[in-house]
Design a protein that fits this description.
heterodimer; A: mainly beta; seven-stranded mixed beta sheet; B: five-stranded antiparallel beta sheet
């Protein structure tokens, strides 16, 4: 069974450009999370969805960040305009909430570098 | 301020040595998880603990949840190079909230 799939794996862009990161969760999972990982701040939750509906976006750093989940098999995280401080690894994770372990299944991440 | 503080931040040991990693908070959690992350990959769940004082073993790894459910430890016996990675603890306040807050991480290197 395929895991969480993220694209692109690596993105290098210039300040001011729009960046779109993509995620395909594990089929049947009803929760999807976007995290950002940096050396300084560790793994931070940006936003999560339940059944395609955004539940909590309080972790989104500012209005330059937006996330959508148009259907159960696809989500995007968009940064517009991008800034050098947005450089990080962005992870998507999904889970099936009917289990009480709450195991998060992570993708391999998208490494973003903003010059 | 981080909700979960892990110590040490970095650890480099020789193969065969024992080690303990700590995850501390002033908050009470309903459950706590430990993940391991290898370079270029996402974190992978190792264990979930839900009861204060609970101890779980996974081969050479022993996980303990503090009695007050505010802290946890991970002990590795006879470390192997394959144990190298970033160890992350993550706490949840309740099952309905569904938000896991991750610790700062401990980067472990086991030297052959």
């Amino acid at each position: 069974d395929a895991g969480v799939i993220q694209s692109p794996r690596h993105e290098v862009t210039e300040m001011g450009q729009e960046v779109t990161l993509r995620c395909k969760p594990i089929s049947g999972h009803d929760y999807l999370f976007w995290y950002r990982q940096t050396m300084m701040r560790g793994l931070e939750l940006l936003i999560y969805f339940n059944n395609n509906v955004p539940i909590d976006d309080s972790g989104m750093p500012e209005d330059r960040f937006s996330a959508k989940m148009p259907n159960a098999s696809f989500s995007t995280l968009k940064i517009q305009p991008s800034e050098p401080r947005d450089s990080a690894v962005y992870f998507c994770a999904s889970t099936l909430r009917t289990t009480n372990t709450g195991e998060l299944f992570f993708g391999e991440g998208s490494r973003l570098t903003v010059l | 301020t981080q909700l979960l503080e892990q110590s040490p931040q970095f650890l480099s040991i020789q193969e065969g040595e024992n080690l303990t990693v700590y995850c501390n908070s002033s908050s009470v959690f309903s459950s706590l998880q430990w993940y391991r992350q290898e370079p270029g990959e996402g974190p992978v769940l190792l264990v979930t603990v839900v009861t204060g004082g609970e101890v779980k073993k996974l081969k050479r790894l022993t996980f303990q949840f503090g009695d007050a459910r505010k802290d946890s430890s991970l002990h590795i016996t006879a470390a192997q190079p394959g144990d190298t990675g970033l160890y992350l603890c993550a706490g949840a306040f309740d099952w309905t909230g569904n938000q896991f807050y991750f610790g700062t991480g401990t980067s472990l290197t086991v030297i052959p």
